[in-house]
Amino acid sequence: MRRPGRVGVYYEEELPTTPCFRCGATPSAYTWTICSDGNRYRPICLPCDIALQEVVLLFMGFKNWRSKLERYKARVAAEGPAGGGCPSGAGESRRAMGGG
Ligand SMILES: [Zn+2]
Hints:
The chain is mainly alpha-helical and 100 residues long. It has one domain. The chain is built from 3 helices and 2 strands.
């Protein structure tokens, strides 16, 4: 089966039934885009989103990457994907839905 991803954004209501691009788990929580991937929208589950956050924090060389990651994990646990979470994902879905 082809891994999920497309040119158009995934809407919030689609993510619960869309498998994660990385691990295939359902539900996906966010959508990521990567410029070198043709900016296709890739659905990502919450554990894979947190793993991606960690990779990026480490790559950027943040000395306090652990505390940044713990704050992020606490926030998404408290608010869920609809509460904001990854700015490259949920925010875009909300805009696509015309919400605020
Ligand atoms: Zn995943």
